[in-house]
Specification:
With about 230 residues, the protein is of the alpha/beta class. It is about 55% helix and about 15% strand. The protein contains twelve helices and eight strands. The protein has helices spanning about 10-20, 30-35, 40-50, 65-80, 90-100, 115-125, 135-140, 145-155, 170-180, 190-195, 200-215, 220-229, and strands spanning about 1-5, 25, 55-60, 85-90, 105-110, 130, 160-165, 185. It has an eight-stranded parallel barrel with strand order 1-2-3-4-5-6-7-8, surrounded by eight helices. The structure holds SN-glycerol-3-phosphate. SN-glycerol-3-phosphate binds near residues 110, 134 and 167.
Length: about 230
Amino acid sequence: MKLLLDTANLEDIRYFNEYFPIVGVTTNPTILSREGGDIVAHLREIRKIIGDDKELHVQVTERTYEGIIEEAKAIVYLLGNNTYVKIPATDVGIKATRYLSSKGYSITMTAILSPSQAMLASNAGAAYVAPYVSRLENICDDGIEIVSEIQKMFNVSKTETQIIAASFKTVRQVLNVALAGAGAATVCSEVMTNLLNHSTTDTSIAGFYADWKKSFGDSTLRELIAKSN
Ligand code: G3P
C-alpha cells in the first residue's frame, strides 16, 4: 500500500520525504489553515521539496460548479504534474469531477463516508476516493469495514479508481486498511512516525552496539575490513 503524508508542515515534509518511502503529500483547508501566511508560496515550496514525480493533493475551496472548475485549473497550473485536485463528495462535486476527469485532471474525491459515495465518485471518473476512517469510528461506525466494502466493490467493477484511505489515529487502522486492499493511505506525521517506532527495536540496536564495542572497541566493521586488505 502506498503511503502519503497528510500535512503541510514544511519541516515534517522535508524529513519524511528524505527518510520515508512516501509517494506524496496530501493537504486540506484545515491542514493549510494551520500554516497560515502566503499559502500559495507555501504550496509551491511543498512541490519544490517533494519534486515533480510525487503526488500533491490540494483541495478546492470554491463551492459552486464553475468555481470548482476554475480553481482546479488554477491549482494544477500552479503545482504542475502529479497534482491531484481534492473535491468533496457533494452533488456539485460529483458534477465537477465528471467534467474535470473527462478533461484529464486527476481528482481525489474526498470526505467519503460511505461505499455509495465511493461508487458515485468512481463512476464520475475520480482517480482516488478518500474514505475517512477515524471520523467514521468517532461516530461509532466501522471505518475499516467501509474501506473493505469499497475495495471489494472496486475489485468487482474493475474500476481504475483507487482508495486513498485517510483520517487515521492509530497504526493498527493503517495496517487494517492495507489488509483490506486499499491502494494508498495518507497519514499524519505522528502516525507516520509510529509506523516505524518500536521500543524493542531500540533496545535490540543498543544491545548490538554495546556487544560490538565490548569486543572490538570503537572500530567499525568497515574499518576492520579496510585494515585487513
Ligand atoms: O484530508 C482528510 C484527512 O486529513 C482528515 O483527517 O484526522 O482530520 O480526520 P482527520
